[in-house]
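Lab notebook, page 48
Experiment: co-folding of the full assembly
Goal: obtain a model of how the components sit together before planning crosslinking
Operator: M.T.
Materials (sequences as entered):
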Amino acid sequence: MHSEPDHPSTRWSGRLSDGKTAGSAAVQVMLTSGGLQVETAGAGAPVVWSYAGLGTGTPVSPKAKDVLLTHSDRPGATLFVVDAQFVRAVTAAAPHLTASAFGWRAARPWMALAAVVALIFAAVYVSDLSPARFVAGLMPDETRRTVGKQVLASMTGDRRVCSNAAGLAALDKLVERLAKASRSGKRFQVRVLDWGLINAFAAPGEQIVLTRGIIARASSANEVAGVLAHEMGHGLALHPEASVVRILGMTAALEFLMGGGGGALANIGVLLTQFSYTRSAEREADELGLALLERAQIPAEGLVSFFRRISELEGGGKAKANAAEGKSDGKMVGRRTGAWDLLRTHPASNERAEAAARRPKYPATPALDETEWAALRNICKTS
Amino acid sequence: MDYPTSPDHVTNRMPAATGGDPRLELGWSDPPGMIGLSFKNFFLKLVTLGIYGFWGKTEVRRRIWAAARLNGEPLQYTGTGKELFLGFLVVFGLVLLPVLVVSFLLAIALGPKSPLLSAFQIALYTLFFYLTGIAIYRAQRYRLSRTRWRGIRGGMEGNSSGFAWTYFWTGLLIPLTLGWISPWRSTKLQSKLTGDMRFGDRPFRFDATSGPLYGRFAILWLGGLLIAVAVMLSWGLLIAALGLDPRALQGRPDVVGPAFIAKLLLVIYGVLFVAILLYMLLSGWYRARMMNHFARHTHFEDASFEGRATAGSLIWLNVSNFLIVILTLGLLAPIAQARAARYVIERLSINGTAPLDLIAQRSEDEAKRGEGLAQAFDIDAF
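Observation: model returned without errors.
Model output:
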């Protein structure tokens, strides 16, 4: 299989160790057509190391001045020769010693495994199968409530829950109307927080938070009902629960990729606030929300008009005026109207408006009457 | 700077035997192709989201080990990327993942501000501190068991829990003793690490005491204190002299502009920079002494080591390696590792002999997986 090697009659000196003790012996080495002929002075006939069985710890570079050889038939034994010419001759006879992708070769099966795992992830992502949602569906109600309470605690801090009696009555009426329409038997717990930020969010366990800011910005009870229906849609679809599961999974994956240096442990509290939904989840919440509004016979326009109005407010010429307004509000921070957070998670799109417009008209009555709407607007008044 | 005994002249000249046993001589032959390897590893690590790192690290070690020579013959690193990878998988599955899940569930059940959660986290960090000791010991055991010279393996004879316990309790005493336990602690830990070391069936011996380290340590400690005081004083004096005191300028927003802030930051960080530099010099001076002291008290058969580390060279090595790694975003980390290894080998020599022909191979008792804990806790010398 091997042709006549280079330098057939040259004898090189090297050192041979048998791998049984740390001693070594001076040897003469020759490249023959049958292999490497190793001759130990005073030890009788030379032995032959076949070229195919030769091994080396590191790939031999063409510039190497020495080489440490092992042989598969002689475990433990090593042959060390210092001679650049010998290195070139022996690698010519046994080219596998020079494999440029030495490290890569051993890693290949594991790389393949990593690629398969990545493919599975990609497939799950593309096919819209949500393992997180599957796990979320397995969580008992009690667990979902507990998780939700902590998520809310992380997100809202110590902000006061608004409790004006007339306001609460109006809110309960609205929630009841929508909850009944969900036909899910789920008990939604909706609270308004004394918080200037314009936001609304759903936490696990059908717990929903509206801010004083969002109610103040709504032009009618229908708009509040729209926002509420959308958040209830998230709750019905278990989006908050899936999000918690996803965060945990992502954190674990990151920790894995960073080789344990991700430092996730220190940030459990922060993690709980990292809620975000995909566009398709938002679409689903919209659809469920619109269905709720229809069954509850509340006008559907509120859901779309509110988000659109807020986004125009933020981007349009009125932004400055609102900024001034925002400043007067003790809880609002920065120059924004405070709606940025809401818009980040609920981008107002034409697609959204069209989806609402596509739905057939149905007979509807206002979400709340004028008195109730006034009471809801005052829900954070203490006196 | 070439090491005087480059392999070209050494191979067939066994160091002169005195009284029969061969003398021992360390050498270094720069590993070829490290820059190319750095690029390859960096790229593959990137495209495999870090997974190739285990194989890349192994490849780097193979070359560095092969560059180190004893009596002209190279060391051999026989570890594999697969072992490192599996080691990490096991630690990830048995330690990191359960800890992550339990922490998360507790945070959810108890609330992010619960004192119970804090207690749990403190317990966790305590456990991790103990595990760090285990990791250090096991990483050394793994590396030694994958190190061969003339086919003979190294190893560690002992177990990691004793070392980890010493590491743990002496570590807790560092703040309580204001750092004064450090030289004693370093000596004690080194004594365990070296005393358990084997080459073939022969042990290393370590007989250093911490006494000789305390002179320099006292100077380092007092120097550190003086530097801290000097930092405070210089800040106060410079801020007063340059009129930068924000309190004195209350109600004068016209003065407090970007230029003012820049000047203030320059004073604060300038002084800090000089202080850190001074402290590094002092600590390098102490660490060089420690390395040489430990080397002198490390014995193998009839040979002893001798260290020639100096404060200046040690600091230069650390600073230049730091810059090499930072400025290339880790790309040239293998070069830095090779430089560190070269420094150790070149600053170390062996005086004396060992009956090499009588040193037999170790029996098999080796770790099958590598360094999972050390990887997880980011302990990584080479």
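Interpretation: Chain A touches chain B through 59 residues (CB under 8 Å).
Next step: discuss with group before ordering constructs.
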